[in-house]
Amino acid sequence: MMSSFFPSKTMSLYMARMFLTRTFAILGALVLILQSLDLLTESSTILAHAGNGDAEIWRYVSLRVPQIASTFLPYSVLLGSILTLSQLNQNSEVIAMKASGLSAHQVLAPLLLTGVIVALLSFGFNERIVTRATSTLEQWKKVSYAPLPIDSGDRSNVWVKGDNNLIQVQQVRGRGDAAQLFGITVYERRNRSLVSILTAPHGVRDGNGWRVDNAERFTVATGQKTKVGTTVIGHDLRPDQFTLAHVDADSMDFFTLNDAIGDLKVAGRQTDALEGALWHKLSGPLSAILMPLLGAVAGFGLARSGKLFVRAVIGMALGFLYFVADNFALAMGNLGAYPPFLAAWAPFLLFLMIGEAVLLRTEE
Fold it and tell me: Which parts pass through the membrane (predicted)?
């Protein structure tokens, strides 16, 4: 019964091959052009470090190309869909398929199924290659393209919440129970009001808490500073809550990011922006399924009426409007204006309904 929803096997393979060829040809051209332009600005910075040469340039290219390909794959799918459907329309192949009794959805079925395959490939590519390339490139940029230092696990400017207090640590060295805290500031609160500020130069693990030495406390009400000496702070705060690195969603795969979000929630940190990015790791690749539907307007109507170009422009406008709405929703999610799930999925679901409405209105 599923096979009856598609055109013939020969026609389906023909359409899928056209779609994939045009999509990846456009992607290759975009990557080549954009990587060349990117090198014009970055190559001088890379070569500015003593000892860097052609090997470092090619290393940068190997790390940057996956990012560009991942970013512009949805655009390539959109343009590939429009070019494929436009050619099928111009050659009267769409008219032949509709004359044989196929509906507009059946005509699009091979492209939609191919879009599912592209979405799965995109998700796997992002998870296995793009995240690792992004992580390495970001670290390399931070040291101005010098040789990458070995990550010793040290963390800086860490904030956690414990005992209803906010704790800031300037530097964390080591991991687990061997972790050491340096430059400690504890904002002691009562009923969400700041009561005092405890500062200490050093702290170590002590049972379920953290023992700090040479501590001083500034009392807000009196404005006086008193020496506390040795005391214990952060009861029931685990070492991993301090040793969590800055979480970059683009540098983590789906499951690693999901675990990091769980750790951050336990640490009392805000995770809305990261949750939006987590959901977008799913909704982003799925845009490959949406693009043929948005570009479908280019595949129908009489090509000889002179409106094929107008239809292609409308398809491009719908596709690019989706990308604008997607970026806007993510920005609103980062600001906390949208819930994470809504920020990631609302544009996809909205334009899925818009694409279906246009197709049903004009062709079905």
Answer: 107-125, 308-325, 337-360
